[in-house]
Amino acid sequence: MSERKKGFFSNWHRMAVLLALYDALAVCISYFLALWIRFDCVYSAIPERYLKTYTCFIGIYAVLCVAVFALFKLYKTLWKFASYVELSRILFATVITALAHVLGTLIFFTRMPIFYYIVGNGFQALFVTAARFSYRFVNMVRHRRHIDETGARVMIIGAGSAGQMIVRDMMNAKEIVDRPVCIIDDDSNTWGRELDGVPIVGGRDDILGNVEKFRVTKIYLAIPSASAEQKRDILNICNATDCELKKVPGMYQLVNGEVSVAAMKKVSIDDLLGREPIRVDLDEVFSFLNGKVVMVTGGGGSIGSELCRQIAAHQPKQLIIFDIYENNAYAIELELREKYPELNLLVLIGSVRDSRKMFDVFEKYRPDVVYHAAAHKHVPLMETSPCEAIKNNAIGTYKTAYAAMIHGCQRFVLISTDKAVNPTNIMGASKRLCEMIIQSFDAKIKAGKANEIPQMFTHEGMENADKDGSGSVFKNIKTEFVAVRFGNVLGSNGSVIPIFRKQIEKGGPVTVTHPDIIRYFMTIPEAVSLVLLAGTYAKGGEIFVLDMGSPVKIETLARNLIKLSGYKPDVDIKIVYTGLRPGEKLYEEKLMAEEGLKKTENKLIHIGCPIPFDVDSFLTQLEKLMLRAYSNKPDIQDTVAEMVSTYHPEDAPKEKKTA
């Protein structure tokens, strides 16, 4: 402890003593220079009375100055961080000592020339200030030189409040080695002017030219109020450069004064989609879910887990997560238990293909609302195992829906896909079968003929709904069945984005099936909002469809992701075209032409009118399809094509005997 104190004294106090000696010397020199200059820089011309007054008083004055400076804590400041506060203290101390100098000479000696008082005090202020701020100035010069040598040269897009905050943060922050070199703004009135010394050089059309002119290596988008489409257009221009791209998070951070370089986020791939996120009145959605038993099948998946997160936040009576893959189910369970310790959470492991298991779950827990997200979704894998797609997707949906109907479930929401539209693969066809199953259940219930819906299972057992044969179990059934159809989900399991990222991390190549392949994209929160909306506003039999804007070329997506990762496509990371996979088509459709559309309160959300089909015939065929699937028939696609008129299977590899 004593060694620490001794070391502290030897450094801190030594500097204070040296600075005090410097101040005393500076004060003496300041007033001598003033006297000397007053008499034309000729020492012999100085009158004796002035020289005597100076020599007799200056020593006393120097001690007084050191005392006043100490009183103003000018010897306790960390001068490498000196700012306005320290400068104001120096000025106040200088004014007080100047008055003391005037009064001291007038009272005890003689009146000195006015020039002496003014210039002497000016020199004193200059020397005292210079000594203290020189350290910071030297550091600033070194810092600027370091920036020029090693730091990034940044272009700021946006000369508004957010842009100004970013510029000032970069100018003032000690730890940031990047510096702004130019600003872009579409307001022509700002061109040719400066923002805190940084020139505003033009609009978005001038981005590429000025990136080269100013040797820019980073671009910060500081327009939080811009629409998604505007941001996309600007970022697409920026993406043509080799610069790293970052953006201000949003208006909330701007309003709360939280805009800083540290708060800047990397531009993500969904920023380049150019579509405003779908916004749903979640208050009404969750008022519907509040106090209900909610079950999510496939609750460990990307869509299912996000459903669980949002549902858990709004006080359901109980949340049941049902999944066959225990690792994912366990992960979301840990997350929800930590975040919502009061949540009545139940995690069950099982398969939707097991009708006895589904009956047992519904009989024990009586879910009010079911979100059915469990499904096989990987197109190429299902092409080589088509019977598994039918068993899990179509038959699994049927068994879950039947158990829900029998046990008084209020709403059953099927998670569908745009691949169900004019499908060319068995996965899409199986999801179209799921939609038709939901529509069949809805039609029979509305017609009061729920008893005509066959209970399908591959074994007779205790799950038989009409155990006593009276048919009473089918009375007063009011379950509403709906489907939600959307496109590819950014970041979900099986999405191209995680695949591309892994390929980029390995140094490439990035594999794209075809240069012209396009897809519709949405984010996971958007998909979940739409699912929840369907569950709230459903009347039964609807297929909710999201207007996902313009489709995106997968090749463009891959190139943008490579650039956002800091590499050059086809230079640092190669793009290889592998050809369309079995069952894959160049584009996906959101809705069959014959379905038509109805508007909802949200202009980006529509309802597809159900396509009429013979429900009785379909249900009869479905039972035969189940038996063929469980028999692992190699020609299962042909049977599906007979049931789904829009399904046009290509020459895909047939399933082996051990499907």
Account of the protein in words:
By secondary structure, the chain is of the alpha/beta class. 47% of the residues lie in helices and 14% in strands. It is elongated and about 130 Å long. The N and C termini lie far apart (76 Å).
Fold topology:
Elements: H1 2-38, H2 48-71, H3 84-108, H4 114-150, E1 153-157, H5 161-172, E2 179-184, E3 194-195, E4 198-202, H6 207-213, E5 218-221, H7 228-238, E6 244-247, H8 251-255, E7 265-266, H9 282-289, E8 293-297, H10 302-312, E9 318-323, H11 326-339, E10 345-349, H12 355-365, E11 369-372, H13 379-384, H14 386-406, E12 411-417, H15 426-446, E13 480-486, E14 488-490, H16 496-505, E15 510-512, E16 518-519, E17 521-523, H17 524-537, E18 543-546, E19 552-553, H18 554-564, E20 575-577, E21 597-599, E22 605-608, H19 615-630, H20 636-643
Parallel strand pairs: 1-2, 1-5, 2-4, 5-6, 8-9, 8-11, 9-10, 11-12, 12-13, 13-18, 14-17, 15-20
Antiparallel strand pairs: 3-4, 6-7, 16-19, 18-22, 21-22
